[in-house]
Design goal:
heterodimer, A: 110 residues, mainly beta, seven-stranded mixed sheet, four-stranded antiparallel sheet, B: 109 residues, six-stranded mixed sheet, five-stranded antiparallel sheet
């Protein structure tokens, strides 16, 4: 089983719809992250959480929200999806020395 | 503001043709520099962490080195299976990871 599991792997949704991306990890780390990846822009941080009671905005949090349901679970929501949120989304968890990424969710907003 | 740039953007090599990828960074108080490999449609896979200038780490055909301003990922006698995007990231003390845009490496048989 993967250390970091994301669901769904692919999703096509319509503009204005609410969508949730889910992430669970088995590494036992407290730190979890959501990134989006766009061609030529690298990985950009959306939200991060250092423990269940600690949620922080990243550099591009507008239009997104998160929920840390447990140490192992961190979900990302798009309250009203728009086309420029079409991207590859990654969840990650980290120790003090390295980060572990999920396989990604390819989201298309039409 | 912490920044990471990578060059070249893309690199095509013949099998066996050694080369290097560059990661240049500006950061206030480097805690660590990280190299990842990313295959198409997959999440980044951890390769190395470097903590201080002069440090080197090796794994199979890859060797990562670090100076105070940049890191190099040296690829010796690459094989087609080394084709991937290589990502560099830095982390300052008390800060999150900052990723570069990556270098797309293609190794032709």
């Amino acid at each position: 089983d993967a250390d970091v599991t994301q669901t769904p792997r692919n999703r096509i949704t319509k503009t204005g719809k609410r969508i949730m991306l889910e992430c669970s990890q088995t590494k036992g780390h407290d730190r979890m992250y959501w990134y989006r990846q766009d061609p030529g822009l690298g990985l950009r941080l959306i939200y991060y959480s250092f423990d269940v009671k600690d949620i922080n905005k990243g550099e591009i949090s507008d239009g997104y929200s998160v929920s840390r349901q447990a140490q192992a679970k961190f979900s990302l929501s798009l309250e009203s999806a728009i086309p420029n949120q079409t991207a590859l989304y990654f969840c990650a968890t980290s120790s003090a020395t390295e980060a572990f990424f999920g396989q990604g969710t390819r989201l298309t907003v039409v | 503001e912490d920044q990471v740039t990578q060059s070249p953007e893309a690199l095509r090599l013949q099998e066996g043709e050694s080369s290097s990828l560059n990661c240049s960074y500006t950061v206030s108080g480097l805690r660590g520099l990280f190299w990842y490999r990313q295959d198409p449609g997959k999440g980044p896979e951890f390769l190395f962490t470097l903590y201080s200038a002069g440090e080197e780490k090796e794994k199979e055909r890859l060797k990562a080195t670090l100076t105070k301003k940049e890191s190099f990922l040296h690829i010796t006698a690459p094989k087609p299976e080394d084709s991937a995007t290589y990502l560099c990231a830095v982390q300052a003390y008390g800060q999150n990871f900052v990723f570069g845009p990556g270098t797309r490496l293609s190794v032709l048989p």
